[in-house]
Amino acid sequence: MSVFTYTTIQQPTEGIYKEKGSKFLGFAYPVNSEAEVKQKIEQLKKEYFDARHHCFAWMLGPERKHFRAFDDGEPNHSAGDPILGQIRSKGVTNILVVVVRYFGGVKLGVGGLIGAYKAAAEDALAKATIIEKDVTEEVIVSFDYLLTADVMRTIKELDLKIIEQKFDEGCSIKLNVPSKQKENLLSRLSLMKAMGKAIKWTYSENNNL
To answer: Top-level CATH class of 135-203?
Structure first.
């Protein structure tokens, strides 16, 4: 079954939880790739370089099947999994949640750690605005200049977003196409091609979530 939309957070948020002198700082970010995840984590490590742990969990993809949890030196499953659990409970994806811990000198035990990391992640996510976004795909349409009016009419009627465009003897337009509109677009382009018009399309490798 195709997934046409997904939910994520609108903007970065922060949360905090304190327990027996330890301070847990929660950070939630909307992200679109593992490269972006890595960049955000490295930024936090530089900013909070004196913290004991930088634990995190992330999830990517509209089907929410691509994820990771990391304990960063805490006992196994005591940090990353509770953070991931909060992401799952919110039903969001394309998200990174990091909890930075400053050790307060008193050990919390595995149960205490699970509760603390969960609480810090929960606080950050509670402050986030949850939004619904379309699953999209980039489609590049190439056509003869004489077909410009037909192509532009199709784009307007389907309310598609133009990312790039080039108009000369060989024209091309890169479109951001919601998955729910993809079949409509391809049907119209196929009809033009069946009528003998010079038009073709390809899919960009840079598809979006």
So the answer is: alpha beta
